[in-house]
Structures are given as structure tokens and as C-alpha cells.
Amino acid sequence: MIRINDIIENIQEKNRDADVDIVNRAYIFSAQVHAGQTRLSGEPYLSHPLEVAGILADMNLDVVSVAAGLLHDVIEDTDTTEETIREMFGDEVFNIVQGVTKLSKLAFTSSEDRQAESIRKMLLAMASDIRVILIKLADRLHNMKTLRYHKNEDKRKRIAQETLDIYAPIASRLGIYWIKRELEDISFKYIDPDNFDRIQYFVEKDMTGRGGYIEEVRAKISELMAKANLKCEVLGRYKHFYSISQKMYTQSLDFDELYDIIAFRLLMHSQADCYNALGIIHSHWKPIDRKFKDYIGRPKPNMYQSLHTSVFGPGDQRIEIQIRTYAMDEVAKSGIAAHWSYKEGKTIDDISNQKFAWIQNIIENQENTKDPNEFLENVKIDLFPDEVYVFTPNGEVKTMPKGATPVDFAYMIHTEVGNTCTGAKVNGVMAPLKYQLKTGDVVKIITTKGHHPSRDWLNFVKTVKARSRIRQWIKIQEKARSMTLGREMCEKEFRKYKLNYNDLTKSEGIDEILENFGYQTLDDLVAAVGYGKITPLQIVRKIIPKTETEEDEKPGSILNRLIGRVRKKKPGGVLVRGMDDILVKFGKCCNAVPGDPIIGYITRGYGVTVHKVDCVNALKMNPERRIAVEWNQGEKEKYPVRIHVQSHDRVGLLADLAMNITKCGANILAANSETKENKIVNSFFTITVEDTRHLNVVIAAIKKVKMVGEVRRITG
Ligand code: MN
Fold first, then answer.
1. Is residue 389 within 8 Å of 397, Cβ to Cβ?
2. Active site includes 79?
3. Check whether domain 208-337 has CATH 3.40.50.1820, yes or no
4. Å from CA of 72 to ligand 1 middle
5. What pLDDT is attached to residue 549?
6. Distance CA 84, CA 87 (A)
7. Of 26, 78, 581, 605, which has the highest C-beta tally within 10 A?
8. How many Å lie between the centroid of ligand 1 and the Cα of residue 147?
9. Beta bridge partner(s), residue 575
10. Cα 76 to averaged position of ligand 1 atoms, centre (Å)
11. What is the secondary structure of 313-332 as a DSSP string?
């Protein structure tokens, strides 16, 4: 078991100024609260946080991380409260410990490929501080090293698979390749013990078969470097078993067909030495084309720096060689975190207080990465994601766009779930359907059979799927409604002309009529009537000669006729959602004008009538026939509107009023006025305006006329 003194020495070796007091205090506290607990191995529980802290120190992390590592299990596994940690060790340690605890509570039941990426991203997104992830990796590494004490084989396999799917790739992305390799090999051993043993056997056989090949190459390299006066340390090893097995698998090769399974690492004292060493290697052994990578000149986004080459070594055997400085090798131990773990003597408070400020620093320091977006894409850690990751009750992770709601979630599960969803429980508590989901939320959708989507949902859903499914549903509903309505209207109109609707629909003549109107089916024709695209009378006229039906136009006042004429010009100014080409009329009661909030009503026989939403008549109408309409911004039309002007009588008043109205570009369709005995004149105008703004201009102009008192629009 590692001792606390080893850890402290390790830290001080790298940074003499490190304030190890907090590490000591964390150790004492952890020892106290874990006292009496044991691991499955039978060892005292304290061995676990100690080993984790040791790994963190190996990763060159700062004292806060190491202290948090010592405390990482105390909230979950002891009686210690969060408040105690905060009071004793400060906000920074507390936040990290809390973050680790939060992640430990997540249970992934499924780790299919598709899921794994979401889970990885979610873990990264949930960690407010990258050190939370690093502690999680160290924790997992030690747990894997002691996995053999788990009695249940299925459980061992499950943990190993999760490690392989989730944690090893995270270590890799963060640039901590040594942890990635260890995690992969241990996982491999539990997931596929037969193949693990096989490769172990092959490697051992290869080692004896080649008889000290690694030693031979190491000695040769050392000799070459010494000749050139380059100080250098040479390490040689077989690649890790998991990567060997992956090579065999992906390239369908037998073990003896594999090449460069032996890798050498040269540790140099300067960057220049690295390039010199590379030149020497290449002039001595023939490099394999296209196998050279300069990660020194062009570091990986996760800070990794090294030269990689593959050459035909002694006996024409392919070997891989990595060349880097000691400093680069140290960086590789902490990966992306190296950026701040190496700032000697400087506390990282200032940097890490800000969420993920570190990545900003890295972007700024990466001269070779021109485009920060491209950089982020390359690392593939969406640290500022436009995404949130939420769970189904079964622990499946769903990736949703930021701002997504339970309705989006419901549609993501299944269209039917979306269509019938009536409520949602988020983390066990009822939440409104427009609640914005957060990463880590567990969402349970409540459905009620027979329930339907609501048009309001369109105002808050974020996903394309939800939006299009809701629209689709509304469209289908509206068609069904229009068909019922159209049928009703036809039957009524037909009766007027002593025709039988049912007979017609069964007669042969119907095909001709359909063709005449350009519809394929009777349903479409009837729906068109319901939508108001055609009137039942038009159908009747196809059946009976025209003369017999000509009694349409009803006599009305001149004013109504005038207004009627304006209206008959098809108003392109209103859009009926989801439908084009519908007969639209304006209610005479309220005379809506662009700028007014409006609502449509499907009338019996004359398409859609548009009212102001607050029109008294509109409020009385059957809600079943309501339909959303909106102003078509692009269209410039003139709309009639009635106004009432109250003024004192004087000579030339009406002429002045008329002039001021027309000056503003409004037409007067009708006017009348009455003078009362007290010389008060009430004038009523019907004028045409473009929209409410235009109307306000006109009203303002009228108000300027001498002796004018009140001016108001008349609606209803
Ligand atoms: Mn732990």
C-alpha cells in the first residue's frame, strides 16, 4: 500500500513550493471517517483513496486535486456532510468532491456504441471542473486494478466493458495515454480472457523467439546517440495487449503477420535533440513511408507532443519509435490538464474558478490550431455543448439540443409517446411540459391514451422531429375536420337544390366533377369545401345549369357593397397555417388590419373568416372551428377600417377631415356624419389602410384638424 509520505514526496519533487498541508489534512480526515471500513480485498478502505491520490500525483496534478482524491468517497461512503468538507477544505476541494460524488451516482445500464459517445460527452459536460474527470479516471484505474476481488463474473465484465467504452476513450481524448493503455488492458483481460491469454502467450513467445531483440535495438540506439553526443534515455516495450488485439482484429491478421508491435521511446533533453535523434534514426534505418508524424511541430489538441516514426529495424523488422523531451513526457502524464498543473508556484484558483477556462487557454496557446471551432471539433469533447444529455428511466442516455423540453424528449422516444404525452416527471418531480431539460435529468414521460398534441407546443419545442410531428398531427386533424365540415356544407347546399348528396357521391358523374376541380378523390374535394377553397354552390353548378342558381348576391347598403368589393379581391394578406389557397374573408364586425392579433374561423360555406382575437363575435364562436392565421408580412394590401371622429361643428370641417385622411394615403370608402344640437358632430368614416401603423398615422392626422376632439377606431 502506498503511504501518504510517498505521495507528498512525489508532489514536492515536482514542485518544492507546493503547499502540502491540505494534502496532510485531507489524509488525516479521510483516515478518520473511513476507519473500520474495508475494501473487498480485505484491505482497509483508506488504501483506495490513497492509491487514487497516488495516481493523481503521478499525473502531476496540483495539491487541491490530490486532496480531493483523498476525500473523493467520503460524502458517498461515510456520514460526512457536504458542509463539513466545505468548511474544512474550502470551496475548491468541496466542488471537486461534490462533482465526483455526482458522477458516481450515475448508473449506466447500457453501453452500446451509440450510447457510449453520449455518455462520454455527458460526463465531460457534467463535470464543472476537469479535475473531477481526472479523479474519476484515477478512481476507475484503481478499481480496475482491484476488480479481481469482485465475486460476480457478470459484474466484473460489465464494469470492464463500461471502462473500455467510456473511461478509456476519455483518457485518450484528454491525452493521458498511459491511463488509457492500463484501463484497456485490464478491461480486455476481464472481457475476453481467452484472447488476452493468447496474446500474452504470443508476446512471451515472440520475446524469447527474437532473443533479446528489444535489448539489441536499445543498445544500438544508445550507441548511435552517444556517437552524436546526444544525451538520451531509451525505453523499449511491446505495445499493450489490447492494441495488439485490435490490430489483429481490424486488419484480420495473425499475430506473426503483425508488424511494429514493439515500440521504443527516446527521452531527450531538448526539442532540437529530438529532431537530431530522428535524423540519426532515419539515416541508420530505413523509415517506412507515410509513417512519420511530427506532433512536436503540430501538437495534438490535448497537448500531446512527440515525434512518431516507424522504421525497418535490425533484421528488417518493423519497429515504432517515439522521440520526445522529458518535459513532453511529463505533460503526457496529465494530458490536457498539464496546461495548468505545471504552473509552478501559481495557484490554479484564478484559472479554474472559471468553468472550463482552461480550454480557452489552450485554444489561445495553440498556435497551430488556427480555427478554434475546428479545434473543438477535433478534440470532440463538447465542453460548451449545444447539447444536453438526459436519461430515460431505464438509464439510457438521450442527446438533446439545449433548451429541449419533455415534449421533445417524448417525441424522441416515439411519435406516439409524443402525441399522447400529458406530463413529465423530471428527477421524480412533476415538471411542466415546457421545462428546459438539464444534463443529468432523469425524464419520465406520462402519456394519456386518447390525448392529442397541442398547437401551443410549437411555441417551445426545440427538435425538428417534435415540430414536424406536431404540425403533421394538426394538419391531419384539420383535414379530418374540414372533411366533416365540407360534407355538412355540401349536404345542406344540395338539399336547397333538391339534390341528394349521397346519390351524387355514388354516381358516375362524380368522376367528371372531381376532374373538373382537379381533385383525385372525393375526400379531397370535400375537404376543399371545408377549407373554403371551393363552395358547395360551385359543385351544385356543375350539376344544374347556371341560370337556376343565380340568386347569390343579396342587396345591402352601399357601404357594405363597397367594403364587400374590397374584400372580394382575394386577400393575400392572411396566411392560414398549414394550408395555401384558401378563401379568406374579414369579419365585418371588427375589420382586422395588419398589426392586429387575429384568429380565423372556418365558416360553413365561405372559407375562413378572420377576426381580431378580441372581437366579441369571435369569442362567441365554436372553438372547434378556430384556426390559427397570421398576417403575411410581404403582402401590401388595403384593409377597410371604421373610425369615429367627434368634433365641434364649423365651416369646412368635413372637407378638412377628408383632406387629412387622403393626404396620409388612405381612401375613404364611406362617410356620414350627424350634427347634434349642441354643435357636436359625430362623423363615421370607412377608410382603407395598410396596417395598424398606417391607421395610427391617419388618426394622428385627423386629430390635427381644428376643433376635432376624440378619434377612435370602431370594432365590433
Ligand atoms: Mn472511489
1. yes
2. no
3. no
4. 6
5. 47
6. 5
7. 26
8. 12
9. 630
10. 9
11. -GGG-EEEEEEEEHHHHHHH
Q: Which of 76, 256, 349, 511 is catalytic?
A: 76
How do residues 146-204 score in pLDDT, each as one tens digit? 999 988 999 999 899 989 988 998 888 788 889 999 999 999 999 999 999 999 999 99
Domain ranges in the chain are 4-194, 208-337, 557-637, 639-714
* Cα distances (Å, whole numbers) of residue 651 to 20, 135, 658, 662, 682: 98, 91, 14, 19, 15
Window from 175-184, 204-213, 461-470 with minimum mean pLDDT: 204-213
The pLDDT tens digits for 214-241 are 999 999 999 999 999 999 999 999 999 9
- Tell me the CA–centroid distance for residue 162 and ligand 1, in Å: 16
Q: Which CATH class is domain 639-714?
A: alpha beta
Instruction: Give, for 598, the enclosing helix (H) or strand (E).
Output: strand 598-602
* Alpha carbon of residue 596 to chain centroid: 35
- Give the pTM: 0.58
Cβ atoms 443, 426 nearer than 8 A: yes
Residue 31, pLDDT score: 94
| Closest to 125 in 3D by CA, of 444, 359, 462 | 359
pLDDT at residue 625 is higher than 60: yes
Burial of 557 (0-12, 13-18, 19+ CB in 10 A): exposed
Tell me the H-state helices in 253-405: 271-284, 326-334, 338-341, 349-352, 357-365, 372-379
Sheet holding 667-675, edge to edge: 667-675, 680-689, 639-648, 708-714
Q: Reply yes or no on whether the pLDDT at 385 is more than 70.
A: no
Residue 364 Cα to ligand 1 midpoint, Å, equals 34
d(CA 434, CA 457): 8
Residue 113's identity, in one-letter code, is D
- What's the CATH fold of domain 4-194? Hypothetical protein af1432 (1.10.3210)
Strands (DSSP E) found in 101-207: none
- Cβ–Cβ under 8 Å, residues 110 and 142: no
Cell numbers found for residue 70: 483523498
Assigned C-alpha cell, 64: 487541491
Q: How far apart are CA 31 and CA 50, in angstroms?
A: 10
The three cell numbers locating residue 475 = 394538419
Question: What is the C-alpha separation between 182 and 168, in angstroms, rounded?
Answer: 9
Topology match between the domains 4-194 and 639-714: no
Lowest mean pLDDT among 189-193, 248-252, 322-326, 675-679: 675-679
Which H or E run contains 510? helix 509-517
Supply 456's cell numbers.
401551443
Banded model confidence at residue 347, pLDDT cuts 50, 70, 90: very low
**Active-site pick, 43, 58, 77, 523:** 77
Active-site annotation holds for 76: yes
Q: Kindly give the distance from the C-alpha atom of residue 30 to the centroid of ligand 1, in angstroms, as a whole number.
A: 12
399-434 core/surface letters (b: 16 or more CB in 10 A; e: else): bbeeebbbbbbbbbbebebbbbbebbebeeeebebe
- The number of C-alpha atoms within 13 Å of 434 and in the hemisphere containing its C-beta is 7
Predicted local distance difference test score (pLDDT) of residue 383: 46
What is the CB-side half-sphere exposure of residue 306 using CA atoms within 13 A?
Answer: 21
Q: Write the CB contacts of 199 (distance below 8 Å, at least 6 apart in sequence).
A: 241, 244, 245, 255
Residue found by looking up cell 491520490 in the block: 53
Q: Cβ distance 268 to 232 under 8 Å?
A: yes
How does DSSP classify residue 148?
Answer: G
Question: What is residue 73's predicted lDDT score, i.e. its pLDDT?
Answer: 94
**E strands in 11-145:** none
Q: How far is the CA of 638 from the centre of ligand 1 (A)?
A: 73
Q: What is the CA radius of gyration of the chain?
A: 40
Q: Cell numbers 415534449 label which residue? A: 407
Which residues is 644 bridged to in the sheet? 684, 712
Asked whether the beta carbons of 644 and 619 are under 8 A apart, the reply is no
